[in-house]
Amino acid sequence: MATGCLLLGAVSAGADMHGDMQQLAEEKQCLSCHGREDMTPRAPGFSSIAAKYAGGEMKGYLVDVVLTGGEDHWGSATMPEPGMQRPEVSEEEARQLVDWILGMHEE
Question: What global pTM score does this model have?
Fold first, then answer.
């Protein structure tokens, strides 16, 4: 029974983290261009990003993309620079968002 409670607690904590990251992505306007799946023509979906960069070797690169924006990261889509069309994202927030996105490949 104790093991069941621990597993339930872990699932609940994971769900809370997912909700927190979903909320952060909404606050930082990530979802204006990205979706969980590839349903938006503006930018790749999080699931495609997670699949392309599975393994985490490019995590630092992805954090930089979130922080600086720019173009030529994925086809012709341009990610707005911070402050232009999207709120500032701290380095810690960028790392959390990238971890969350990369974790979607494991789901």
Answer: 0.75
